[in-house]
Amino acid sequence: MPGPRQIRGGNLLARALHQKGIEHVFTLAGGFCNPALEGFMECQMRVINCPHEQIAGHLADGHARMTRIPAVCLVGPEGFANAVPAMMEAWGERSPVIFVTGSSTLKRQGAGGFKEIDDVAIAEPLTKYSASVTDGTRIGEFVDRAYKIATSGYPGPVHLSIPVDIMFSSFPETAGAEERPFDRTHRAPARAWPDPEALGEVLDLITAAKRPILIGGHGVWWSNNEAKLEKAARALNIPFFNVPYHQKLLGEDNEIYMGLADIHQYPPSKYALEACDVAIMVGGRLDNQMNFGNPPLFPQTLQLICVNGSHEEIDFNRAADHVLLSDPGAFFDALIDLPASGKWSLGSTWLDLNRAKRDEWVTATINDLDGESDEKIHPLQLALDVQEPLGDNDFLLFDGGNTHFWSEIAVNLCGWRGKKLKGIFHPGSYSMLGCGVSFALSAKNLNPHSTVVLISGDGAFLSGGLSIEAAFQENTPIIVVVDNNGGLDCISQQQERLFDSGTHFATDFRDIPFHGLFEGLGGYGELVETREQLLPALKRAIASGLPACLNVKAKGVISPIVLATTSKRDKASIE
Question: What pTM value is reported for the model?
Answer without folding.
Answer: 0.92
